[in-house]
TrEMBL record:
This is tRNA N6-adenosine threonylcarbamoyltransferase. It comes from Roseinatronobacter bogoriensis subsp. barguzinensis. Its main location: cytoplasm. The gene is tsaD. One of its GO terms (cellular component) is cytoplasm. HAMAP family: TsaD.
């Protein structure tokens, strides 16, 4: 079956689709199989994710070259495991969907080349998926959320409020003008000698801390609009740490816990405050079923989930957050985004290219600037 065949199928709306998803945009090697019949909820037949934490532990962050090599070594094995777990073969598939960007280009290329090889060998349709669209469409995979809905996409590399109007229709209401929250969590963890990835480490340390001890800033919270900033907050943590080290000759365990708790509270206040403004803009559209959804790796943080849920409840808006396994990078969301493309009749040609940058809202002005590689966000 080709994309042209799929697009010309008279009863596409009633066709059951089985799609293989491949994800390798950062440091998670992932493959998944999803089956969807329009009258039923999507079935995640398999969702294999292999992390690379041990490979990058000594470097304080993800090393692109190491990540790319690990993907090249393990992607085919991840696909084999996903197919076996789903009890399907390549002949049972209707299409292959792969992350084509944005991300670390070496990893993205590894996934695209494998997917292209599978498609060429089998004749299956090949779909290039925007990694961010995978996150943004996750509420439709988990909860069949109708369009339009408000999405806070918050991860290691991205942070933006999106109005999700369709499978390939996104309007950005605001975003970070510098660091993403996940990046800030990683950098704070490194400053405080906590293990990577930083998000879980900071969250765990914060459980024993006093969030009111240090008066850290809430950048841009006093300014209108939905744009955010986290770089200054990270710098404030650095200065506070240095003052503690100078005063006590080192960083005590309680100091570290209190600093983590204060940092996390500042991020929570920032996201909740900007979420309220985004909800107000969203509600001007008078949606029939107003929903605020959150996705991305940072959405796994329970404190942040709680404050966002409170902001939604206060505004009379439904709140949705995916299961933790679907917050971080995974291939199930990529397979689902591919299914959404097919259902919407928006299929990509097989000659798409891997892209390090690929904004969802192509009409919006770049928040962080744009160069030869295109807009970053």
């Amino acid at each position: 079956m080709t994309l042209a065949t799929l697009n010309k199928t008279p009863a596409l709306e009633s066709t059951t689709l089985t799609v293989l998803g491949i994800e390798s945009s950062c440091d998670d090697t992932a493959a998944a199989v999803i089956r969807h019949a329009p009258a039923a909820a999507p079935a995640i037949l398999s969702n294999v994710v292999w992390g690379q934490t041990d490979l990058h532990a000594d470097f304080g962050g993800v090393v692109p070259e190491i990540a790319a090599r690990a993907h090249a070594e393990k992607l085919d094995l991840a696909v084999e495991e996903a197919l076996a777990e789903a009890c399907v073969t390549l002949t049972d598939l209707d299409a292959v969907a792969v992350t084509a960007g944005p991300g670390l280009i070496g990893g993205v290329l590894s996934g695209v080349m494998l997917a292209r090889g599978i498609a060429t060998a089998t004749g299956l349709p090949l779909l290039g998926v925007n990694h961010l669209a995978g996150h943004a469409l996750t509420p439709r995979l988990t909860d069949a959320t109708p369009f339009p809905y408000l999405m806070l996409l918050v991860s290691g590399g991205h942070c933006q409020f999106l109005l999700v109007k369709g499978a390939d229709s996104f309007t950005r209401l605001g975003g970070t003008i510098d660091d993403a929250p996940g990046e800030a969590f990683d950098k704070v963890a490194k400053l405080l000698a906590l293990p990577q990835p930083g998000g879980p480490s900071v969250e765990t340390a914060a459980q024993n801390g006093d969030s009111a001890r240090f008066a850290l800033p809430r950048p841009l919270l006093d300014r209108p609009g939905c744009d955010m900033s986290f770089s200054g907050l990270k710098t404030a943590v650095l200065r506070t740490r240095d003052a503690l080290v100078a005063e006590h000759g080192g960083l005590r365990e309680q100091d570290r816990a209190d600093l983590c708790a204060s940092f996390q509270a500042s991020v929570a206040d920032l996201l909740a405050g900007k979420a309220r403004r985004a909800i107000a803009l969203y509600m001007d559209l008078s949606p029939a079923q107003p929903t605020l959804a959150v996705a991305g790796g940072v959405a796994a943080n329970q404190t942040l989930r709680a404050v966002l849920q409170k902001a939604a409840q206060d505004a009379g808006v439904q709140f949705l957050a995916p299961p933790l396994a679907l917050c971080t990078d995974n291939a199930a969301m990529i397979a689902w985004a591919g299914i959404e493309q097919i259902r919407a009749g928006k299929t990509a040609p097989q000659d798409f290219v891997a892209r390090p940058r690929w904004p969802l809202d192509t009409e919006a002005k770049p928040l962080i600037g744009s160069g030869k590689k295109g807009a970053k966000a």
